[in-house]
Amino acid sequence: MSYSCIKFEKKDLIGYVTINRPEALNSLNNDVINEVTDVFKKISDDDEVRVVILTGEGRAFVAGADIGNLLKQDAISGRAGAMKAQAMMDLIENIEKPVIAAVNGFALGGGCELAMACDMRIASDKAKFGQPEVNLGIIPCFGGTQRLSRLVGKGMAKYLIFSTEMIDAQEAFRIGLADRVVAHEELMPTVEALAKTIISKAPIAVKMAKASINNGVNLDLRSANQFEVEAYVSTLSTEDRVEGMTAFLEKRPSQFKNK
User: ∠ at Cα 131 (89, 166), nearest 5°?
Assistant: First the structure.
């Protein structure tokens, strides 16, 4: 599939996915959702990609959904569109490889929801976050009411959604919506350095840690801890476990093989 709304490239085991509709502030339409879904399905099976960086072209990460498209929706097409977008978000959230959102500008509505589907959000000091849907007579429907409340708590999620307040990167960091804030010009170098750090770790261990966190957060503590034990046990038979522990004892860098 050739892409008209996104850019994708691979370098040094990093996959770069860039939403590329700067003239529309990278707003999400059906084509963008199709292309992002397609590229993440391909990344899932691509051994040349160990970590994904998701960002936007120009001055926005993603400034929401395409309002013109939303205006045309009825109950049937709206349900189908929301389910399709949620499937894309679930794919990003649950892909075995870590996904880092490099939030370079506006992350509003569907853009905020897209960032929340990623494993981590590193924000430029120029970034802005918000869920303005009730201004339009609708609510967040790409997972926003659920992921936002899990990240920042029920009360803060209600505050942001009900008030539609747009917050800056520092406030997003304070409430737990962003994981780090850096100077705008340092955003990509910082995210790339983080990606390379993750790549240097045992790939299967990173994969199982992600699965344990994602699955456990929705379970009771006893069940979540049991999931964690089984995820841990699955790493014990790997060559990477032997290599990591041996390298530690021998005081040398590990040479992981993803086995």
Answer: 130
